[in-house]
Write a structure and sequence with these properties.
Blueprint (H helix, E strand, L loop, with lengths): L16 E6 L2 E11 L2 E10 L2 E11 H7 L4 H20 L1
Antiparallel strand pairs: 1-2, 2-3, 3-4
């Protein structure tokens, strides 16, 4: 199979992917936006060079606005602390 992508089909979004560690476990977070009003964060756990899917956390646009701050780093920090970490702790 051959897939071709030209520049008109490409776009770059901030807040789309980040990584953090909790209790010596690395997590990759990937943002999907299935529509204008929904933010979906896929949580992936990385262990021994393998990644395993954990869950998806969904935020409405209004919920996302509660965590949005001046820059990408501060916004990601708030989302990790207030949304992602509690979700991971619940799944243990």
């Amino acid at each position: 199979m051959y897939i071709s992508v030209d520049e008109s089909q490409m776009s770059v979004f901030f807040l789309d992917c980040f990584r953090f560690c909790m209790n010596d476990i690395e997590y990759d977070i990937i943002l999907n936006k299935p529509d204008v009003d929904t933010y979906e964060y896929e949580i992936w756990k990385r262990a021994n060079r393998k990644m395993s899917f954990v869950t998806i956390v969904r935020l409405s646009l209004d919920e996302f606005k509660e965590y949005y701050y001046v820059d990408e780093e501060a916004t990601n920090y708030r989302i990790i602390n207030k949304v992602i970490v509690p979700t991971i702790k619940k799944m243990r």
